[in-house]
Amino acid sequence: MNTEKLSQRLEAVASYIPEGSKMADIGSDHAYLPCHVVKKGVVPFAIAGEVVEGPYQSAKRQVAMEGLEEEIIVRKGNGLEVINDEEIDCITIAGMGGALIASILEDGKDKLGPTKRLILQPNISAISIRKWLLENGWELMAEEILEEDDKVYEILVAEKGDPYRPYKELHKELLLGPLLVEQNSAVFRNKWKSELDNWQRIVSQLEKAAESEETSQKRKELIEKIQMVGEVLNH
């Protein structure tokens, strides 16, 4: 991967960045994504934010090597603290756990005023992000699921709006993704079939374990999930 040729998941993230927007890429690593979209003329200005010294230095080197220091500012800081007021209108956060992405958004809520679009790519626990969006007035505009190098990634795109609009069955679709349920793609089905098999294995093990309140509760939660996901896959 380089600034010319992104990975499939980052290409997908890039495809949702509105033309002409000023973006911040949080957890930018080598700054491949901002370099790519600036070079393609999609965005005129970007911030690459990194909290870890090594990736921060890598991003600085990459931006300098590409000759993009006028268009891309690399900043070291935690989450959205790298953004100044009224500076950007699109935020990308890719390649982290969903719970971490949600906590970054929660901790940096005061920086989100001028932000028109969030493009979020969790590696796990997309449900954590959907819950945060729902609680904070962000509407899911698009969802995408893809497989790359035997890993499954989800991309969630949100804008300010009615957070309940995409949902028909809230409890189920927070877990699965309301727009992904509609699309019902082969990658989506394979992901949840695999999860289903895993949950059924755990339930079998719990049934053999010594009965306790904890094992009983865990089994109940898993059976509920199995029924929920089974309904969607059978439908």
TrEMBL record:
Keyword Ribonucleoprotein on entry: no
Domain of life: Bacteria
Any Pfam family the entry gives: TrmK
Coiled coil: 189-216
Keywords assigned by UniProt, alphabetized: Coiled coil
PANTHER family: TRNA (ADENINE(22)-N(1))-METHYLTRANSFERASE (PTHR38451:SF1)
Name of the protein in question: tRNA (Adenine(22)-N(1))-methyltransferase
